[in-house]
Amino acid sequence: MQQYKQSEAIERRETVPAQRIGRAFAQASREGRCVLIPYLMCGFPSVEQSLAAMLAAIEGGADLIELGLPFSDPLADGATIQHASHQALEHGINIAACLAIAHQVAARSSVPLILMGYYNPVLAYGVQRFCREAAAAGACGLIIPDLPPEEAGPLLEAAHEQGLAMIFLVPPTTPDERIASIVRVAAQEPRGFIYCVSLSGVTGARDRLPPHLQSFIARVRRQSAPYGLPLAVGFGVSRPEHVAEIARYADGAVVGSALVHLLERHAADGEAQRAAVRDYIRSLRECTVRLP
Amino acid sequence: MQQHLEQQKRESSAAGPYEHGAYPDARGRFGPYGGKFVPESLMPLLSELEAAYRQARLDPAFEEELQELLRSFVGRPTPLYYVPRFSQLVAPGVRVYLKREDLAHTGAHKINNALGQSLLAKRMGKRRIIAETGAGQHGVATATVCAMLGLECIIYMGAEDIERQSLNVFRMRLLGAEVRSVDSGSRTLKDAINEAIRDWVTNVETTFYLIGSVVGPHPYPLMVRDFQSIIGREAREQILQLEGRLPDLVMACVGGGSNAMGIFYPFADAPEVRLLGVEAGGQGLASGQHAATLVAGRPGVLHGAFSYLLQNEDGQVLGTHSISAGLDYPGVGPEHSYMKDTGRASYVAADDRLALRGLQALSQSEGIIPALEPAHALGYLLEMGARGELAPGSLVIVNLSGRGDKDMLTVARELQVTIS
Ligand SMILES: Cc1ncc(COP(=O)(O)O)c(C=O)c1O
Questions:
Q1: Which residues carry this modification: N6-(pyridoxal phosphate)lysine (chain B) (predicted)?
Q2: Which helix (H) or strand (E) holds B37?
Q3: ipTM of this predicted structure
Q4: Counting atoms of ligand 1 from 1, which one is nearest the CA of B374?
């Protein structure tokens, strides 16, 4: 389909996109804070609004952006992201449209972009073609929640060929031995981070972080530390105090469903929507500073 | 894990000849199909399930309890019954036998699998059972075995299916199950499975997901095939006793594919037996309103497995339509995909009207009201006969997977009869 003419901004960057992920984590670490990763669904509430929201999130201080690729059967997602996904599909959003959005964000900013979506649309698009065009559009990494390492072979190979990191999820119910083997796969270059799922369950904003989060992160850290692989925490993160807590022991916080709610609340007014996203991300960003 | 990755690189997706008994392999694949495409939370669980299942099958006590309950509770073996008047309607000289799964307790084959898996759940110490249901037959079967074994039971069912299968919803509730309406997506079976998987991911430690067909991640397609193969094992023995030879043709309807796999698998090593699966043609393949996954789909990933799938160009799963809720599903078991590609089985579609014709024909010629699902196979068989595709002397077995009581409101509506 569409071949992206690489913008100058993208050309100037290194040939291994995934390295920019590591650099974003390293930069934040030098500044004594964790990274903040907003998740925004491509095409929700509309193509223009999702693009504007991503740029507003960057303005508010996002360190990386996760771009959601909609799917008809998002079985790792709660009602909020299901709804966003459904609405994006109603607007006729497909992979090509998502990559076009990524490309526009990448043309305006150097914030690393991660694509998160289910496997079937990627398969249908063609695994190699997807990775090639994703890299050309400015993406640095991929998260596919229904693709455990055992099944990831073909995509992992294609992603690595294009310098894209494959980022795997690790929930708290995973035994140590399995965490170790996931970490080994995730640590191969080009690499990104480990996505620690705060709780066993689906995405969705929650009032409180689960009580054993810190010990879970410590458990993953024991396995990831030898490889120096950063740890980000997602699922259920929505409030500044959540980010502040995560900053104490992890390297990144992912916020998703809360942004869907925010976009819905201000759906009528584009300007207000952008301001709301920017201010919300700013309020979270302030909490990324690691307190002694 | 590394080994798996290497193996995947080497793997070719080209279909060789069908190898009976060779699949699934260690990775849960049937040729290229199957696998475990699930959120990471479920991976340790699937390994645990696989190990527990293997252990159970080696334990004579498990086998004994299962066989005893199949006999005394389910009412097995079910008869293999010759239907002379229906045979006449098909074509002269053709002999049609029905494998009477409609006579199993709860009225469909689903109980064979529900019983097997619930005994496994009990053995694994999991007392909270969740299941999805389309027509409600698997839900009823699951609610039934849970009541019998004293297990908690939660059934996910699409809101649309709840409307058209109200009788089964009532049965499930009467049996003590909680029926949860699923309002997302197309509000049918596929969405009920999504919701059941979400529940499972959330309650991994306590919950056993009792899948109702040969779909889902490994080891489900294997387990469900094993539990349903009792159908084909009995039928093979029965036909040899009654006719002294194997059938020429074995037919079954295919939704997820469990009743079909159950009767196909024990015949699959005999190349002279033709295996024919009949999918739901809905309002016709050209209309797009159908559920003929193997006939009209292409391979993709849904609900944990790589298999044929009804999807659009962008890889989004399509909505389906069938007169029978039990066939209204855009996916299909991975072993059927493998059987299709290797040519061991073939698959066709029968539309809503043909299914209705099959249902009426069997009811009137034999005094057996079939469920709308197997009525697709019956209707297609009538058509094969009319087209002269069956030589005189042909011996045919149709898996009569369920009885029609649950469908009476639907059938009445289709025939424009009002029942109060
Ligand atoms: C009577 C009957 N037959 C067939 C099916 C389809 O399922 P499967 O293809 O797994 O046998 C159902 C599903 O509900 C059913 O109730």
A1: 110
A2: strand B33-37
A3: 0.94
A4: 3
Percent of chain A's residues with pLDDT above 70: 95
pTM, two decimals, is: 0.95
Q: Which tops the pLDDT comparison, B159 or B15?
A: B159
Measured between alpha carbons, how far is B121 from B128 in angstroms, rounded to an integer? 9
**CATH of B75-107+229-415 given 3.40.50.1100, 3.40.50.970, 3.20.20.70, 3.40.50.300:** 3.40.50.1100
Residues A174, B314: C-beta atoms closer than 8 Å: no
The per-residue pLDDT for B6 is: 55
Instruction: State the Cα–Cα distance between residues A118 and A182, nearest whole angstrom.
Output: 19
Structural tokens at position A71: 């799917």
**Per-residue DSSP letters for B40-109?**
GGGHHHHHHHHHHHHHHHH-HHHHHHHHHHIIIII-PSPPEEE-HHHHHHH-TT-EEEEEEGGGSGGGBT
Helices A176-186 and A213-224 pack at an angle, to 10 degrees, of 50
Q: Exposed/middle/buried for B190, CB within 10 Å: 0-12, 13-18, 19+?
A: buried
Q: How far is A201 from chain B (nearest CA, A)?
A: 4
pLDDT, tens digit (0-9, with 9 covering 90-100), for A80-126 = 999 999 999 999 999 999 999 999 999 999 999 999 999 999 999 99
**Ligand 1 center to B130 CA (angstroms):** 18
Which regions of chain B carry the CATH code 3.40.50.1100? 31-70+110-220, 75-107+229-415
Q: d(Cα B59, Cα A153) in Å, to the nearest integer?
A: 36
